[in-house]
Design goal:
This protein is of the alpha+beta class and 192 residues long. The chain folds into 2 domains: 46 residues; 132 residues, Ribbon (Umud Fragment, subunit A), CATH 2.10.109.10. Helix content is 23%, strand content 27%. It has a 7-stranded antiparallel beta sheet, with no helix packed on it. A 4-stranded antiparallel beta sheet has the order 7-6-5-8, with no helix packed on it. β6 and β7 form a beta hairpin. The longest helix has 20 residues.
Length: 192
């Protein structure tokens, strides 16, 4: 067996590597539809593994059941949000100390309440301006008790956000709470 240092000095070894690289390039061009999704997933995974909570790629993937959409397009439009707007935001609720993984986890939810809206709770049912928006579960997936959000009026600069799934961790709970406008990363358009 030839040691590595000797094999790399061999001119035939270099020509074979050039040939291999050229063949890979031809294969990528021929089967681009296979390589493109792999590249996108790799870029997104690398971004997440490096610990940056702000997505740099505007294409978002939702792996949870909190919303029925799995792929969405994000724009960094942060000027005006209204009820029904889909947003991605940095999580900063009380539960960050209980679940350290939430620290760098962007959340994808719908704005259900805006400044001036009144939140009321009746038997763990959450209402915004007397319209039912969801039920606050008693326990999290790991068995920890969950308290509903406190009643009151949503202050200026805050939003009530929620997913469509009954298991979504959102503003229904005190440990998640309302989000501030400066936590919002951008507006989201669901694709599918």
């Amino acid at each position: 067996m030839t040691p590595v240092s000797q094999s790399t000095s061999n001119p035939n070894w270099f020509k074979r590597r050039q040939s291999d690289i050229a063949e890979l390039g031809r294969d990528v061009l021929k089967r681009w539809y296979i390589y493109l999704p792999i590249a996108v997933i790799w870029i997104l995974a690398t971004n997440r593994l490096l610990g940056d909570p702000t997505p740099h790629v505007p294409l978002l993937f939702n792996w949870t059941s909190s919303l029925p959409y799995k792929v969405a397009w994000m724009s960094r439009d942060t000027l005006h949000y209204e009820r029904g707007t889909f947003v991605v935001f940095h999580f900063e609720g009380e539960a960050k100390s209980l679940y350290p993984g939430l620290k760098h986890q962007p959340f994808f939810k719908i704005i259900k309440g805006i400044a001036g809206d009144r939140i009321t709770i009746k038997d763990r049912q959450v209402f915004i301006n007397d319209a039912f928006v969801g039920y606050a579960k008693r326990h999290a997936f790991d068995g920890r008790p969950l308290e509903p959000i406190a009643e009151g009026v949503i202050p200026v600069g805050y939003f009530y956000v929620q997913g469509t799934d009954h298991d979504s961790f959102d503003s229904r709970y005190r440990s998640s709470g309302l989000i501030r406008a400066d936590q919002i990363i951008g507006r989201v358009t669901p694709l599918f």
